[in-house]
Amino acid sequence: MSELVITARVLSPVTPQAAVLEDVAFLIDECGNIQERAAKGDALYAALSAREDVRRMPSDSLLIPGVTDLHIHAPQWPQAGMALDEPLERWLGVYTFPLESRYDDVFFAEKVYSDLVRTLLENGTTTALYFATIHEETSLTLARICLEKGQRGFVGLVAMDNADLCPPTYRHADAQQALDATRRFIAAVRALPGNEGGLVQPVITPRFIPACSDALLKGLGELAAETGVRVQTHASESDWEHRHVLERTGKTDTEALDGFGLLRDATVLAHAGFLNATDRAWVRARNAALAHCPISNAFFAGAALPVRTVLDEHTRCGLGTDISGGYSPSIFENARQAVVTSRLLESGVDPDRSPGERGRPDSRITFQEAFWLATRGGAEALGTSAGQLLPGQAFDALEIRNGRGGLRLSPSDDAERCVQKIVCHVTAENIVRVWVSGRMVVDKVDN
Ligand code: GUN
Ligand code: FE
């Protein structure tokens, strides 16, 4: 890839509470990293914008950082928007394990995974942390499709061996088989042709404690320490799941995962609504993070993650779609729902209770904070240098075209207003171009 020079009006988060809106010139190096970011008025801006190879973004476009989906089940894409009539523990057995067991079919997997990765890119998801299935060949297919389409992909071969919970048709025969498969998968992803830059990374993925034997969890913790590969799992998602782990191990999910060596730098715990303050202190101590999945939580969790507290105590956190516990492939939709859920947690929802007894005070988060969670929050969770369009970070960016869909930005809107409108109104309809590490991976307009 050759060097890129772009001038654009940019909206990017600075902290969880603040964003900047400015005219910027970028110099992007051959590796797709931002070498220079110069604001209008600087000498460097003038020099870059005078270059012959400059690409000028139209005045009705706004450039924002790409977003991260910090928790998504790729094989569940065919059932997104259906099958949400059962509680989690039944939903897994009735719908989800039977669907996931079909991914020994390469043709089926190719079709679903290609469609999903394209859809996510069109929705602005430049980075995704995926659960695949237990099947090595097609989980590698997902990694290859991310690479081909240019998405930054963190892909996990799911490990699950507990016969009490997992059906015989969809589980590893024993811990050793799951460990051997995970080890092979790590090597295979790292060796994918074209992946020399590491755009796609393997992830150690125990499904959740109930689906795994102690031997498997311990073995995966040792493998993480040996290889330095990131870990993802579900933790304290619902009353049932949280209680199940307490009864089996005498510990919370977080304590138990830490005991197995699975709570590590950049470990992502999905859902995590029932973590207590001590659990979250361990998450911070280990540099791990939470994936907040507000849509899914409305169906399965039975409670809302207290994101206000999570942000105030500086626990790392990003947003996940949790396809198909959540129905939407859009992180922007989940950002909206994160704001809405926090407001409902604050006010409460039962009109028969008096206002003072209805909710949990001081629980709201702002649109600005949701913008942070979607962009820098997710990137920070994974330890990737992206999410703010700053020098040194990857050029992972979205061109948003004003006037499309419901988006109506006005020239007098300041950064805060723009953030509100962006979070509320960005859809695939107004995301017209997408770049990942400087490579344009979606291009839907001529000008
Ligand atoms: N816990 C274990 N597996 C799953 C899954 O596929 N989705 C959700 N939401 N929770 C899980
Ligand atoms: Fe999930």
UniProtKB/TrEMBL annotation:
Cofactor(s) needed: Zn(2+)
Alphabetical list of SUPFAM superfamilies matching this protein: Composite domain of metallo-dependent hydrolases, Metallo-dependent hydrolases
Domain of life the protein comes from: Bacteria
Keyword annotations of the record: Hydrolase, Metal-binding, Zinc
UniProt keyword Calcium present: no
Domain Amidohydrolase-related: 63-441
Pfam family, one: Amidohydro_1
Gene3D superfamilies found in the cross-reference section: Metal-dependent hydrolases, Urease, subunit C, domain 1
UniProt name for this protein: Amidohydrolase family protein
